[in-house]
Amino acid sequence: MWHASAMTRNSASARALATLALKGVGDASLGEWWEHGKAMHLRRRLSRREAVLVNQVRDIRGTPEESERLAVLLADAPYLRGLL
Questions:
Q1: How far apart are CA 12 and CA 24, in angstroms?
Q2: Residue 6: closest CA among 30, 46, 34
Q3: Run of H or E residues at 13
Q4: Counting Cβ atoms within 10 Å, is residue 62 exposed (0-12), middle (13-18) or buried (19+)?
């Protein structure tokens, strides 16, 4: 699944920015979801071609790997900590 998040002064521009971030990837006809909280979130299923290339997808939520990746991200962008 592809995921893009954008936060701007208004939801229309955040939606446009998230859409632009996923331009050319995924297949919206296979599934696409919008969520709006502090940021606008767009999730889109992989295209069939992308799924074949990826081969195996793992869910790392709640695992030590998730914590490690989040720590690296927050070290590079500490301002994101307030969004958690």
A1: 20
A2: 34
A3: helix 11-21
A4: exposed
Report the predicted TM-score, pTM, of the whole model to 2 decimal places.
0.66
Give the CA count within 13 Å in the CB-facing half-sphere of 55.
0
The whole-angstrom separation of Cα 66 and Cα 56 is 17
Per-residue pLDDT of the chain (84 residues), as tens digits, is: 899 999 999 999 999 999 999 999 999 999 999 998 889 999 999 999 998 898 877 788 899 999 999 999 999 988 888 877
Structure token pair of residue 45: 């299923």
Written as one letter, the residue type at 74 is L
Pairing verdict, β 32-36 and 2-6: unpaired
CB atoms within 10 A of CB 12: 10
